[in-house]
Give the backbone structure.
Amino acid sequence: MSHIPDQNHLDTLQTRIIFALESSNIGIAATILQNELSPPEIAHILESSPRKVRHLLWGLINEEDQGEVLVHLNEDIQQQFLEDMSAEEIVETTQDIDSDDLADILQQMPSEASHRVLQLMPRDERSQVEGLLAYPEDTAGGLMTTNMVTIRGDVTIEAVLRYLRKIQLPKSLDVLWVVDRRFHYQGSLALTELLQSNSQAIVSSVMDTTIKAIDATTHEDKVAQLFERDDLVSAPVVDEDDILIGRITIDDVVDVIRDSADHNMMRLAGLDEESDTFAPVVRSSKQRAVWLGINMATAFVAAAVMSQFEASIEKIVALAVLSPVVASMGGIAGSQTLTLVIRGMATGHISKANLSWMVMRELGVGIINGALWASVIGAITVLWYGQLSLALVIAAAILVNICVAVLSGTLLPFILKSARIDPALSGSVILTTLTDVFGFLTFLGLATVFLL
Amino acid sequence: MSHIPDQNHLDTLQTRIIFALESSNIGIAATILQNELSPPEIAHILESSPRKVRHLLWGLINEEDQGEVLVHLNEDIQQQFLEDMSAEEIVETTQDIDSDDLADILQQMPSEASHRVLQLMPRDERSQVEGLLAYPEDTAGGLMTTNMVTIRGDVTIEAVLRYLRKIQLPKSLDVLWVVDRRFHYQGSLALTELLQSNSQAIVSSVMDTTIKAIDATTHEDKVAQLFERDDLVSAPVVDEDDILIGRITIDDVVDVIRDSADHNMMRLAGLDEESDTFAPVVRSSKQRAVWLGINMATAFVAAAVMSQFEASIEKIVALAVLSPVVASMGGIAGSQTLTLVIRGMATGHISKANLSWMVMRELGVGIINGALWASVIGAITVLWYGQLSLALVIAAAILVNICVAVLSGTLLPFILKSARIDPALSGSVILTTLTDVFGFLTFLGLATVFLL
């Protein structure tokens, strides 16, 4: 009995492929790709390679695997391959993949190019894919597949069983959707229920009405929250007239969950667009340059604040040495709160309904930690510079800066969100600017007033 | 037809509950909790409330709902409630929940307390739960449920259909597992296949052997990677003798995926343990104090480096003003790389097999961005201070610091991982220390040599 190959196994195969390429044994690399790896595994290896190697390996894959490999690649990399293919090649490569996967791929392409691909497709399939393309990619309608099985509520279980023998069933089907004659969603019938019901029973009397339909325009993040909360495996999707138009399956939701959690982390580091780990150096450099530039601007704002106190620094050099400590403590305290609040907003645990609880809570944490570290840093300053007055000034600055930091960390995401700005993307840079500026202002300001 | 209530709906209900509590209308809060919310929704509202409110609301829930609510709470908060309950109360509250959910709950408890609960359980159920407790929580064995349906490969489809009518089927079942007489895993039979097969066909001739069994000791992160990669809905779990011992369903894997992506983000901000958004203020303060303390120590290390150059700063105050800019650019460039590498390690895209590609790539990005921002910052310095020599010194320091930052960001996670330290937890603080110290050293060192 062979077990599922784990990550180490895949790493070993990749090492062998890299070795084969380096020693120009293209044949060996091709054999591994064609015989030892499944399409999702091949996609994983392509994602783990730089662009040049990626294109070389793509040419070695079995032609009949290319469609499935394409589906499993992340969008950025999908695009790279699609750009190099003609509309005819795309139609040929993708002929065996599911219509919702094809719609996802077409959604990535420039509209002119996707239009050309659609023109070349058989009519049935084209109209199915066009139906899916009607909804934005990040909604329930964009996530759904039209590949589902519907039955009428007024027929017998026996009739359903007979019907199911005649049609092609999608793999990983767990429930059938029950509709009325105008295709309004009525409820669901699990296959397990179907297998155990009396053959003369009427569907509507045994169906389950607890699974509610999702509106096609619902945002994908909400869809993910619903799947997580209610442990769903599949859910029906309806249009504005409650007509059943498709179903969403958990495997598509898993991608949404991974991506949204991932994006928040990446955005906090200013890496919004870098979904391809091995994107070309120049492209990555450009994307990251934006963030570095914004950071530079804010660093100079902080520097300009500090330069207002050059006269004080000239007299007490310790101020220059200690200023970054004040700014940095505020930055850390603020980013702890910011991260917690952004996570809480993503999971739905923090909303306007309970924002005041969160403000009180974070302010409490800020005062406790502010007081604690103000004392410690004050004590270290006395030991280091032997000046009590300097110690008192830095302690006051630390306390104020940590409290400002936690308050900003709590409120900033809400302010940004109501201005329709993504808090994960811009929150940390605004926050650091605030804590740097406030840190320098309070510390150097107090020092100028009390120490000179 | 009612749709799934969305987040706004839940926020509204929470606002109404908060309002009811504030105006001491406990009855209204109880009515909403008992009649308008499902157990997962109640769990969500508890998670979104501070501790005191949480305990008050818990007392208002229908007793028969408490078990399901408990299952849907995050582990931290589960623990809070369990601590307040006697073993008898725990057994009563959890009597209707699935054995794998119960095992998860018991795994959270101190071993003495969970032992007491097990003693009070009916014998069958106890042995089932004890079987699940044999595997660590973060392995396939810890994720699995023993609630599955197995059939023999040598029987007919008709016999299987008859058998299924007689037993209780788990909800959301999509496949049956086929085993031999010694319970070795052989393959799977989808319910859809079962419905369409000839009733006289033998199971082993129609079963699917492409779903491979997962070893019970496989780490949960690997399980998640497999589910994501192969779009699995459920998978069989075997012990070291290839005996089928359970199955893992996607809903449990979704939690793993959410948690692991989440943990990386939280750890990067030094919030490792804060899974409860509304944890008590004192507990949060303690947890975050550790991180602030570590940060303070590293800030003082950087300050100590700077203080070595006090004589230089006294002569050229601009050095004090510009030092934080150098440190900060290195910090941002480094944390971009670090985040990318940590994400890549989590998704399996970066391993020792392709580390050298990654190093070359990041160094390329570092040199391009280093050169770019060195020029820009040099130009700004000339405009601001009118000193070409100062501008050249800061430009050189920026270039060096950004290159050091991207190299550290790439290599540090691997070094930490081989020392069995979580890169997400300690990576950013070590990195910032490096970029601060290097930034100050190169900038102030070069300035001392060339400008004085």
User: Anything to note?
Assistant: Strands of chain A lie at 150-152, 175-179, 185-190, 214-215, 234-238, 244-249. The first strand of chain A starts at residue 150 and ends at 152.
